[in-house]
Amino acid sequence: MNEGFLNNLWNALQLILAWDTELVRIVGLSLFVSGAAVLIAALFAIPLGTFLGLKNSKWVRYISKIIYTFMGLPPVVAGLVVFLLLSKSGPLGILELLWTPWAMIIAQVMLALPIITGLTMTAIKSKDQAIGKTALTLGASKYQAALAVIREARIAIISAIVAGLGRVIAEVGAVMMVGGNIQGKTRVMTTAIVLETRKGNFEMALSLGIILLVLAFIINSILMTIQGEKDY
Amino acid sequence: MFKSIVKKTVLMLVVMMFIALAFGCANGQADKELILATTTSTYDSGLLDFLIPEFEKETGYNVSILAKGTGASLELGKRGDSDVLLVHAKSRELKLVEEGYFVDRVDVMYNDFVILGGPEDPAKISGMKDVAEAFKKIANSKAEFASRGDNSGTNMKELAIWEKAGIKPQGDWYLSLGQGMGDTLRVANEKGAYTLADRGTYLAMKDKINLQVLVEGDPILFNQYGIMAVNPDKHEGINYDGAKALIDFMVSEKGQKMIGDYKKFGEQLFVPNAK
């Protein structure tokens, strides 16, 4: 009880080094769920964000406001909505997706979608004026001009994806609500941290937190390398 | 360059989908999948990690355990989002059985609740025999009390004791946390606050906290656990056979013996009492 924080930290590091299969599974599922959620969200968000970024009308501004609002959607609310949809007593209960990684992916897509859309939209808007016009002047079609803008804004778009990933891999409310933190099935790093903290196993919880940060660091490093390509 | 990123992204997505499909297949036969909603006390104490693998080995079922509070577990069961429940709020369980949400309810085991507090014991309740009197002293001295505040079985028991004491707990000293047992013990420990806990979770966390048992043994502190199946007529796709198998296992001679044998730090956490 009276050991210091450093002692806790040291024991946590030892736990990481004792890397067991349970830990590998938890980390793997975290990466799978959040990775899939961000990729699915990006597939919809990048075209949508580009479209909204290029357009400038009254209703586009209205939609933007809604998207910006949803960027702050509390994960536990996303979880609650998905839970109510997928529950046996809900409209999609027949699919039997509750308490599966799929349900977790759906909830995280809801969280990542507004962030990636909103940030893509901002990125496109900041490039639109100059590039789009130049491309059109050079005889490009609207579609080609849009592609040119996306290409120019790609660094900001990758940042948007990184921001989306950072949000979902670190959230606990939604995956706890729809996944249920079932051992070997839907337990991810954040829900495991909640469980271990509740059980008073602070060192195990801390070691999971450290792994989460290290993973975030690695992912960000890889993406920043892709971003930096232009500078080489 | 940009196109290649898109290509890589799409490729990764396809790979992910395949992995996901593999996940789906691994879940396998649906009729062997069983969802047990239970309380944090039975899960966090390690009892289920001890019992369930044996049940799975014996019957071939694959049990997913949701560790929520009793209130949340009952709600999940009513909605059809679990197949079987192991909870501790007997009067409420019986009422829901009567209303047709659950079937086959039986007593499984019991332990008791204890009043915990820091070694300073500002309200001087240590050794008292009457819990309601002890609660009165806590309220009168305005010593901090940490409540689960989450509609769990423990929370309902605590509220019943306050009612018996004729006190409406409110004020700065009454901390309604809205958290599980382990979290509540952690907060009470940090604050040196009083709290009501089931003995199982307390014993399981004893080496990590400074809280001590101050009041115990009052009959009102009896804590009965029961198991029941979700009524298969209420929802589609309820694994009633699996639920029945788990109920039978829990009350079987073997299951009961395992419950009695389960020890943490040399102390028995639950006493089997199936009839």
Structural features, described:
The complex is a heterodimer of chains A (232) and B (275). Chain A is mostly helical and 232 residues long. Chain A has a domain at 34-185 and 212-221: MetI-like (MetI-like fold, Orthogonal Bundle), CATH 1.10.3720.10. The radius of gyration of chain A is 21 Å and the shape is globular. Chain A has helices at residues 5-17, 21-54, 58-70, 75-86, 101-137, 142-152, 154-170, 173-179, 189-198, 202-228. The termini of chain B are far apart. Helices cover 46% and strands 23% of the residues of chain B. Chain B is globular, with a radius of gyration of 22 Å. Chain B has eleven helices and twelve strands. By secondary structure, chain B is an alpha/beta fold. Chain B has helices spanning 2-27, 40-44, 47-59, 70-79, 90-98, 131-141, 153-165, 181-191, 199-205, 240-251, 253-261, and strands spanning 33-38, 62-67, 84-87, 102-117, 145-147, 174-176, 194-198, 212-215, 222-230, 263-264, 267-268, 271-272. The interface between A and B is large, with 35 and 40 residues.
What features would you highlight for this structure?
heterodimer; A: 232 residues; mainly alpha; MetI-like fold; 78% helix; B: 275 residues; alpha/beta; D-Maltodextrin-Binding Protein, domain 2; 2 domains; ten-stranded mixed sheet; two-stranded antiparallel ribbon; 23% strand; globular
Give a quick summary of the entry.
The complex is a heterodimer of chains A (232) and B (275). Helix content of chain A is 78%, strand content 0%.
Strand content of chain A: under 5%
- CATH C-level of the domain at 34-185 and 212-221 in chain A: Mainly Alpha
Q: Which spans of chain B of ≥5 residues are poorly predicted at pLDDT below 50?
A: none
The number of helical runs of chain A is: 10
Judging by the overall fold, what is the CATH architecture of the largest domain in chain B? Answer: 3-Layer(aba) Sandwich
Query: Mind telling me the CATH class of the largest domain in chain B?
Result: Alpha Beta
Secondary-structure element string of chain B: HEHHEHEHEHEHEHEHEEHHEEE
| Secondary-structure arrangement, i.e. CATH architecture of the domain at 34-185 and 212-221 in chain A | Orthogonal Bundle
Please write the string of helix (H) and strand (E) elements of chain A. Answer: HHHHHHHHHH
Name of the CATH homologous superfamily of the domain at 34-185 and 212-221 in chain A: MetI-like
Mean pLDDT of chain A: 88
Total number of domains of chain B: 2
- How much helical structure, as a percent, in the residues of chain A? over 70%
- Amino- and carboxy-terminal Cα gap of chain B: 72 Å
